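batch job 7 of whatever, protein = C-type cytochrome
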Amino acid sequence: MLRKVLKWTGGIIGLLVAGLLIFYFTMHIKVKNKRDKIYDVEVRMFEIPSDSATVAAGAHIYATRGCADCHGADMTGKIFMDEGPIGTLSGTNLTRGKGSKVAEYTDRDWILALRHGIRKDGKSLLVMPSYEYYRMTDKDLGSLIAYLKAAPPADHETAPPRLGPLGTVLSALDKIPLIPAEKIDHAWRPGRPIPKGPTAEYGQYLSMSCTGCHQPNLKGGESPIPGGVYVRDITTAGNIGKWSEQEFIAVLRTGNTPDGRAIKNEDMPWQMTNKYSDEELTALYRYLKTL
């Protein structure tokens, strides 16, 4: 009797192991196919100025769109995730120094990366949140590119991306935004420029940077970062419905909420939002109050 039980148990364990291997192999192939897909898109060109005012505007965009979180304040790149079974992910060196992937970039290559999330070889960039940037105006996108092109060369090499077994499965299940190119409307074309000012219209334009974590409807949900805290609703159904404009601005400047909570920067990047101008924070608040 014991021999039969052991035999059945061994058979069940064998089936479970085989099932897990088949599942992982399927996930691995799915991710590989996504990474190897070639995107053939039309890149609409526009002028990239190089004057000092444009570069300064680009520096502000770099500081307020989360670019430094992955590429570092000095633009030389850094590891932003190193979690064994999930993998290692890093932002590349955006200067023209040693270790750079962009040293030979043309204006077309920059636009392809930022507006379409695609590399020079036609494959998608990895984890680069271009879906938060592709609807920027030509002027703002051009300013950002001008700033990146003006960066002095600095040598720094970062480790190539590595997906662990868990990272592979999470990516295949779309729990990690690994392939930005598949989340972008590549046929999108910018409409009229949005006038800057403390208006809900300009706030809506700025809110595209919030959609990567708070979802396109800004209602929040699961964190795009494995193990991250649940992302809060930032419509009027959440705290925006309770906070005054002054309280909202104070939260995004200091990370401290009116009810005494201290927000961790890794949960909500207030160290980035505190670089927004008063005009930008006012515009964002006035837009969120309409939701």
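notes: The longest strand covers residues 78-83.
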